[in-house]
Amino acid sequence: MKSGPTIQDIAAAAGVSKSTVSLVLQESPRIKAETAEKVREAARALGYVYNRGAANLRGRRSTTIGMVINDLTNPFFVELLVAIERVLAQSGYTTLMAHTAEDVETQTRVLRSMREQNVAGLIMSPALGTPDALADEIRSWGIPLVLVMRPMGVDVDTVGVDNTYGFELATQHLIEQGHTRIAFAGNRKGYTVANQRRQGYLSAMAEHGLAVDDEWIVDVELTPKGGRDAVRAIFDMKPRPTAVLCYNDQVAVGVLHELDRMGKRAGKALAVVGCDNVIAAEHTNPPLTTLSAGADRLGVMASRTLLARLEATEEQQAPVVQYFAVPELVVRESSVGAGSRSRSGSEAAL
Amino acid sequence: MKSGPTIQDIAAAAGVSKSTVSLVLQESPRIKAETAEKVREAARALGYVYNRGAANLRGRRSTTIGMVINDLTNPFFVELLVAIERVLAQSGYTTLMAHTAEDVETQTRVLRSMREQNVAGLIMSPALGTPDALADEIRSWGIPLVLVMRPMGVDVDTVGVDNTYGFELATQHLIEQGHTRIAFAGNRKGYTVANQRRQGYLSAMAEHGLAVDDEWIVDVELTPKGGRDAVRAIFDMKPRPTAVLCYNDQVAVGVLHELDRMGKRAGKALAVVGCDNVIAAEHTNPPLTTLSAGADRLGVMASRTLLARLEATEEQQAPVVQYFAVPELVVRESSVGAGSRSRSGSEAAL
DNA sequence: CTGAAAGCGCTTACAG
DNA sequence: CTGAAAGCGCTTACAG
Fold first, then answer.
1. What domains lie within chain A, and their CATH numbers?
2. What InterPro entries would the database entry show (chains A, B) (predicted)?
């Protein structure tokens, strides 16, 4: 810790008081232009570096924002993080990052650390299994919180996706392709997002009068490995499903991969749909049909929601934000060509 | 900024001085166990939160570390970031993150911001085109700097990869598979890493007495799109190369994808090798042969190097660290089966 | 083993 | 338009 010149040093060099220097650094219009220039010149000459920590302590404010992310191995969350960091930086905030790797204890630890660091606000994508009470606890700290992707009750600002609608849309697409036996590769346990996605699938099936065999709901890890396991399970079923809806693109990548290993082609042997539209989904073999809600747009929304909270006074706070983006289906090769309807078309091409 | 109890409040509640409270919080052995317990109890009762910013200001130290990353859309750097963040957190440091998206101006801005935030040290993967002088400038700030992946001269701590050796290894592997016309998809411009990789390729070719046609060095974007462009360029050459060495896995993914679009299979139509061994390389179709130096291991090395600098006194500083991991080649399907040597094998199997 | 005092580098009323 | 003074929440010699 080599310490450089302080406003005191600048004040001495410029022949003014440190109050004046402070005001100049804040670009206060109260200081005469001439004086201000003299001060800026002295600061430059001395190689002055503003000490934001000291300013925050004295001013009882903070310009850092904590970003708590559950899974950076999923590129979707990386896209989200990048967008959020960009928007916050543009508004003069610095991002304190922490990765929880879906571990609730790690999450507790990093939240404590961020509180000690005196963050002005928090954006969090909570780890699976986070108790709902955590949102209340954070509120009790007096730190504004915006949740992304994973809701935790209706009284906390949340930016996410309408998963139920999205999975209805995806299921409907598969039905339109002529599929009637459609599997779901995700997990059966009760986290909100998983439930919504499963529910969207189930209700679209019901709406079209299609029965769902319980074994079609394949409980797997939400990773490529899980996708591979799902394919093996599906090919053991008789009659076997001709399409699979995946919890997310990570699972779908595993599905595409296992099909390839078996010498089969997604889209022909089994129609595959993912969710998230990660950048890589465009370059898988074959390219992946998937639900897109726009990671960048969600990141921008989440940051703006937080910035609005920070800039509003106690009295003028807007009501709780609950924003759920409506996803679109991006149709690519992985879901086209295997259903009975389209199969007749591809047979004609043979 | 709701502010909670301070050490002064705890002191009052526990009936001691704030010096004593401070010492207890630092777990100083100088305080009697009984007194310490009384203080801790009072802190708990009041819901005390340590203010690290105030402590850092007074103690003239800092417990945050800046992490400047050039490209988070490349999963390799994400793996690196995750490893670094984990190690730093374990040592009680907080990570301030910034993403430059390969933009030198953004990088300048975030470095200034981190300096104002009073980071104890910096870990940086510099943006392409960063002037070498930047390392000296950061040193002049008195902030220890560790570079990852991209060296900038020999007098700054650096943790990277022996790219020249790696690309020699990869080239040799392709030659052993019977290939003699091997292309290189990267960029021709003069950044250190690009030069090393190209050089490794060229020297292995030379060593085996194989001529390199200038057009085989395909200058493309270092993205999947670049990989796709490379494939199109290669298939226009006559006689065309039968193998391609890619700058990194991002490029290789594009190569695999374009081959698939053309109805061809990597490994048969064209042998493909990448670099980085990102997690996804295991699940591409076909799986990707690639160079692995271990993102996690590199991240751990980089963090430890920085931690060692922070913990050593001025006099006992170790000499500059220049660590270059020796990569291994992970052979998967994308590079096997297309060379003349192995082709005879596969013909026998037909 | 504990306390009184000084001070880290800033900001912010307040006074002139 | 500018300055003197108080203070943000801590730590650290120093004294006892």
1. 7-50 (no CATH), 64-161+294-326 (3.40.50.2300), 163-292+330-349 (3.40.50.2300)
2. HTH_LacI, Lambda_DNA-bd_dom_sf, Peripla_BP/Lac1_sug-bd_dom, Peripla_BP_I
